[in-house]
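hey so i finally got around to running the thing on that chain from the lab meeting. sorry it took forever, my laptop kept dying and i had to restart like 3 times. anyway pasting the input first so we r on the same page abt which one it is
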Amino acid sequence: MSHGHAHPHDHSDDHDHSHDHSHDHGHSHDDGHGQALTEGDMAPVVDMSVPDAELSPGQLSRRQMFRRAGLLGAGLTAAGVLGAPRQAAAETGRGDDFDRFEPRDGYLWLAGDHHIHTQHSSDGMYRVIDHVQHANAYGLDWMVITDHGSVAHAKIGVDKVNPDIVAARQAVKDTLVFQGLEWNIPAAEHGTVFVAPGRNEVATLKEFENAFDGAVKNATASTPQNEALAIAGLNFLADAVKQRRVDDALFLANHPARKGIDSPHEIRGWRDAQPSIAVGMEGAPGHQAAGIPKPNGGGSGRGFYDNSPSADSFPGYPAESYKTFGGFDWMTATVGGLWDSLLAEGKTWWITANSDSHTVYGDASDRGPNSDFNANGRYNDPIYKGVPNLSNGDFWPGFYSRTHVGARGFSYGAVMEGIRQGRIWVDHGGLINGLVVRARTSDRRGVTLGGTLYVRQGAQVEVSIEITLANRPNWAQFVPALARVDVIQGDVTGPASDKDVFTTPATKVVQSFEVGKNNGTVTFTYNVGAVDRPVYVRLRGTDGNRGAPGLLGAGVDPHGPQIDVFGDADPWKDLWFYSNPIWILPRR
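ok and heres what got predicted. didnt touch it at all, straight out
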């Protein structure tokens, strides 16, 4: 392992934009004196030719917020800040067009969670507004309500939850609330399906669930017929977008290694059938409190990863795959493993991290009494019980797991586009506050996470990394300290002849940087060197508390995440962040 050196640049005024809820992203803004700021009022805020002294108090406050977030001077327009469409063409990530349309650090990195359950899930209990208000308080900008697909939910739950979601959107305007569902994928595990809000969101989700949910259709067994039904479901979502029933739809696989039933060929099949709909998986599952040891916790596995192989499990998976590593799913945590085998094919397949919040650790409330879920499609509102429940395995959305999406504005469409493009990094426990990554040549601005840098054969390429370190206590009331950042690089070798392969031999940790400080900003540069073949690069970082050689050996991963100890895995004592990849492709 080679050790780089941090180049500290202290910015005492740095703020994590995704976690700063002094801002309001709507099309009108309160100036702090009861007056709304319109888009016309916003124009001077981002026009740096207008001096601070000429702004109203509200305008000055908003400019200061943008300045702290590093967004001024980045070529932003008032329309761009407010999420209106840009005049420039959409980013393609290809060739020279990329540089013209992306302002430096010009994305809003919006923190969110796409896996949350309410009283409309058979194993949930909270109201929609409970989750939304908590998510907002814990710093989330967007979230998806994903109640379980079931007979009762398909029949009445999809309709019943929608008014609660609409009401929450009105009550909490600075957190975007999507409606989705947790799909029982035919022949496989669960997955998040969600659509852009609009007049057909309920009808589309209801038709999808009734026609393609594995529980509703009795199609959970691992058979070719059921695998085909899953593909048909993804085709339905793609057609709904194409026919403009909904503006957008996305699917992400949830806790993919938990039961061993998401086979490699199924994951490849989903992605290849509809790569604009099936875009990724949970790199880290929810239920992170489940590993807290007894008597202070439930004493299970992080993510409730406590399973053994079943008749429907893929027989090739090793025993370790049923556990988490530093809180992350085996498919993601193994360098050179399943996720890397997809990236080595050049497949765009992104990772996320979420709460999967059902019942919250330490919460003193209880499910509403006299509930009849099957008849009503929901439980009655929760009541205060007065006894903290330490066996619950979940955290509130935003409390521990965050998925940061680089969005072009604060809007539902911008978040979905950012997810689809892979502008995503994830963290646990507030390990870091910000991450800006660029792959570039000396004469180019370069591309960010999820992008593809096209270069001349033999061109020198570097990856610049800027990390804003944690500067305030997390929700466990300590300031996390980032100890090390690892750069992982792999060769892009093209389509795999075996659709069930889950390793790739040419991916490994190529450089590690020791951080050496605990405040401000650190920057690192990884020199890829002369690019003579297609490669990809991704990052991870750790607090350094627990580590072990990776499953494929110390030569591949000398200091990776350690397998979590069942019944003794305090999530706050083992924090990691992961980024999505950047591809670097030479033109021959």
